Amino acid sequence: MTPILHSVSYAGAWPGQTRLTLDQFIGKAADLGFPAVMLMAKRPHLSPLDFPPEECRRLREALDARAIECRVIAGYTNFGADLEHGEIPQRELQIQHVAELARMARDLGAPIVRVFTSYEHASVSYSQLWRITVDALKECARRAAAYGVTIGVQNHHDLAADHRSLGDLLADVDEPNCRACFDAWSPALHGTDILAAAREMASLTCHTTVADYQRRPRFRYLPEFVNYEARAAWIQAVPMGEGFIDYRGFIAALREGGYTGGIAYEMCSPLLGGGGERNLDRYARQFLDFAAQMAQA
């Protein structure tokens, strides 16, 4: 599996995180030893507002000069957004955005545009939101097909976060170029058997992204009871191999199911040790060591 570095890792996505420009990030990825990147499709990186065809050609040349491939364009969608204002064509706007990302992916030689599904919304039922999302993904896939690009649906938002639901969603979309960007993070938090899930999803999966975490229990003190009330745990990002997610088993299970795609690493939440460039680099190098060990397994 080709190791891939997600540019969100150096995008200043959370307070205190080092922010590099896209060109600086490409140089960073090359210097660290990554053969491929996943590019965040919003500012400060690969926004369609800033990358018409001529800028994509320049970026492709910069990637080629550092012997780096662009494997995935990371889109940020929520097809359930703003449903309380039906006069705003939110789905049309997002579908057009994804179509533009597919054009950019073609120009950069990337075979996949990653998208999300929908957050649940009080204005519609679950079944209505499902249909809205299916219809939007179907149109995204058909428009991306014109560019030879696959739409990869990540199990991130509320809708279809469960792996079986994600499989159902892809079946309902029923487009050959709409597949899964199946990650271990959400099923691990759900308490799912991630090895069984990986075996089930492997044949549907075109890409996976990893990041490791430790749980930090949280409590709220209740003075009237002289006791604590348990709250949802804080999920603390830590270097690969130091968290609770069995990535060795997960990757092995994907392989057993026939998965041959890449594996991207992302740092998109506060890291243990902070967001300074030296710490980010340390995490990235530890992921490369992990990827090398998996390649030999």
What does this structure look like?
The chain is an alpha/beta fold and about 300 residues long. The protein has one domain: Divalent-metal-dependent TIM barrel enzymes (TIM Barrel, Alpha-Beta Barrel), CATH 3.20.20. The protein has nine helices and ten strands. The protein has an eight-stranded parallel β-barrel with strand order 1-2-3-4-5-6-7-10, surrounded by six helices. A two-stranded antiparallel ribbon has the order 8-9. Helix 4 links the parallel strand 4 and strand 5 (about 150-155). The longest helix is centred in the middle third of the chain and has 20 residues, at about 125-145. The model has no long low-confidence stretch (mean pLDDT about 95).
For the record, the count of structural domains works out to 1
Number of helices: 9
Helix content: 25-40%
Strand content: 15-25%
How far apart the termini lie comes to: 11 Å
CATH topology: TIM Barrel
Q: How does the overall form come out from the CA principal axes?
A: globular
The CATH architecture designation is: Alpha-Beta Barrel
The residue ranges in which pLDDT falls below 50 over 5 or more consecutive positions are none
> Biggest sheet: strands side by side, in what order?
1-2-3-4-5-6-7-10
Tell me the number of strands.
10
- Average the pLDDT over all residues and give the rounded result: 97
Structural class: alpha/beta
CATH superfamily: Divalent-metal-dependent TIM barrel enzymes
How much is the radius of gyration in Å? 19 Å
H/E series: EHEHEHEHEHEHHEEEHEH
The CATH C-level name is Alpha Beta
Largest sheet: 8 strands, parallel, barrel
